[in-house]
Inverse folding.
């Protein structure tokens, strides 16, 4: 299956509108049909993709001690339309961006190969990179993409929230938040706020493949807790989050990279002094 190439391709009307909205307000919403249309894939390929959310593993790194989140994680290099999955690696956020779970290397189960390689994943990586490229007016052609598969399971008397860290930025350039499925669920409203916390929008993603794209440099986001409509069955909210930043950007949240760079700078300095 081939997806429509989006990297620096001429923009269709939906993409032109999305770029204009991102530039004007910092976020853009895509209805489910628009997302599917942009991906340009036959309907039958969506079912096997979403079924993989049945096979996520518990998030063992919850600072609030919660057991309500399952996930998988993958990272990609996207350069000039070529997408390469990177070796499995930690996920790191600074305390600045995630006061609850930041400041430590977190290891999650890898995204299954057939899902990481799936045309839907590649289509969304192309879409995100294309949008990030256009809103930043950069010559940057090499992007780092991260993929998070999430399931939140909400019970009647237990707080279950898709964003336990609260209102936040992810510390990247662009974020795609896509609903994969919701069952027996109340809540789960995506709030978009400006850098001062002022309310710009509250969006309820209702249908599979509906998504919101956010300029993470300008805006913050949050998702409200979920509750079951009918107990004792749990509420379920499945989501896909993709983030994008320039590959060589000084990632402000990446303290260990900064520390490694400082160390290598010291080593270079020492080496130069020895050679002199
Ligand atoms: Fe986030």
């Amino acid at each position: 299956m081939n997806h429509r190439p989006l990297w620096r391709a001429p923009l269709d009307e939906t993409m032109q509108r999305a770029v204009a909205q991102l530039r004007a307000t910092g976020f853009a919403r895509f209805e489910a049909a628009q997302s599917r249309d942009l991906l340009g894939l036959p309907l039958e390929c969506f079912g096997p993709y979403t079924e993989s959310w049945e096979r996520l593993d518990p998030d063992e790194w919850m600072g609030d001690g919660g057991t309500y989140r399952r996930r998988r994680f993958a990272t990609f290099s996207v350069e000039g339309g070529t997408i390469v999955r990177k070796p499995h690696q930690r996920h790191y956020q600074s305390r600045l961006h995630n006061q609850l779970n930041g400041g430590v290397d977190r290891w999650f189960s890898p995204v299954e190969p057939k899902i990481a390689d799936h045309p839907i994943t590649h289509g969304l990586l192309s879409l995100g990179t294309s949008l990030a490229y256009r809103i930043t007016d950069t010559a940057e052609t090499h992007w780092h993409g991260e993929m998070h598969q999430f399931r939140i399971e909400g019970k009647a008397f237990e707080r279950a929230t898709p964003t336990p860290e609260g209102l936040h930025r992810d510390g990247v350039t662009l974020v795609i938040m896509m609903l994969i499925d919701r069952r027996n669920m109340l809540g789960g409203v995506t709030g978009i706020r400006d850098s001062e916390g002022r309310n710009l929008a509250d969006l309820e993603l209702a249908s599979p493949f509906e998504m919101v794209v956010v300029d993470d440099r300008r805006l913050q986001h949050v998702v409200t807790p979920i509750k079951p409509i009918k107990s004792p069955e749990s509420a379920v909210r499945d989501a896909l989050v993709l983030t994008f930043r320039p590959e060589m950007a000084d990632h402000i949240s990446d303290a260990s990279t900064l520390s490694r760079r400082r160390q290598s700078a010291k080593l270079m300095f020492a080496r130069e002094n020895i050679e002199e």
Q: What stands out?
A: The helical segments are 13-25, 32-39, 46-51, 113-116, 119-136, 255-275. The radius of gyration is 19 Å. The first strand starts at residue 27 and ends at 30. Residues 255-275 form the longest helix (21 residues).
